[in-house]
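#structure-requests
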Amino acid sequence: SDSMNAIKWVAKKKCNTKLEQSERNKPLFELVVRAEMWLQNNSYQNPILKWETKQWGEIPADFGRK
């Protein structure tokens, strides 16, 4: 699931995307690098929770794409 992939990325402090970088999405990749650097250089105490679709419905950020 998307939630489990996101949890793994945070735990490993590395985004594992298959999306190829292009000029169009370059700003997104720059943000990913920035986020990875933050994860590597900082600690956090917030629990990373899986989104419970059955309880809470679809993630609003999916914008109806599922």
